[in-house]
Amino acid sequence: MDITKYAARPESYDNLSEFQITNFFANASITRAQCDDFAAQLLDGSVSATPVQGGNNYTVESKEVLKVVQFRSSQVDMAKLELA
Predict the structure, then answer these.
(1) Edge-to-edge strands of the sheet including 67-72?
(2) Domain ranges in the chain?
(3) pTM for this structure?
């Protein structure tokens, strides 16, 4: 059985990511440009949004240093993170 007809196409991910980014900044006290500028300074290079975004954050990556910076609407629970 060929299930490829049920797979999401790349443009579906692009549309979802743009929706999530727009939704995140609609409720944020900072702009996307400000986040991009801050991340670029932090990583000392250009940054771009990751292809897949979360529902409550904005994530950018730098190809030069292979790191990501994530902006969140709420603080990460470090105790839970350490359990992961």
Answers:
(1) 48-49, 57-62, 67-72
(2) 9-83
(3) 0.80
